[in-house]
Write the structure tokens for this entry.
Amino acid sequence: MTRFTVNGQPVHYKMDPETPLLWALRDASNLTGTKYGCGAGLCGACTVHVDGHAMRACQVPIGTIEGSFVTTIEALSRDRSHAVQQAWVAENVPQCGYCQSGMIMAVAAMLDGNPDPSDEEIDATITNICRCGTYPRIRNAIRHATR
Ligand code: FES
């Protein structure tokens, strides 16, 4: 059994410790805001926070985060009050929207550690992929969130 905290609630997953966090969140906790894109750590659709750091949940076996604190888009989006989500709405970022919860989680973690990133720092940190090509609006929303 693997125990940690998800969005402030203790969880006990009776799953193989090698199970990727992505599937524990989606299948056992019904937190489907965390998306499956590539399953290989490349696209970032599955980005969540583990102990405050952005991590790609498809690459995190649940057995490796015993005792950790996990935050998903569902917690970040409560009451639509998070500055990054408000910026996303204000700048009308999403097109299809599939990648956007991972994008928002990656940006929120970046801004927690660096509230005024340069363009170069944004490019180096936010490596999530958006097939719709919303990157200019993402950049605008990051600037909006830092105002
Ligand atoms: Fe995890 Fe693509 S689904 S990085």
In short: The chain has a mean pLDDT of 96.
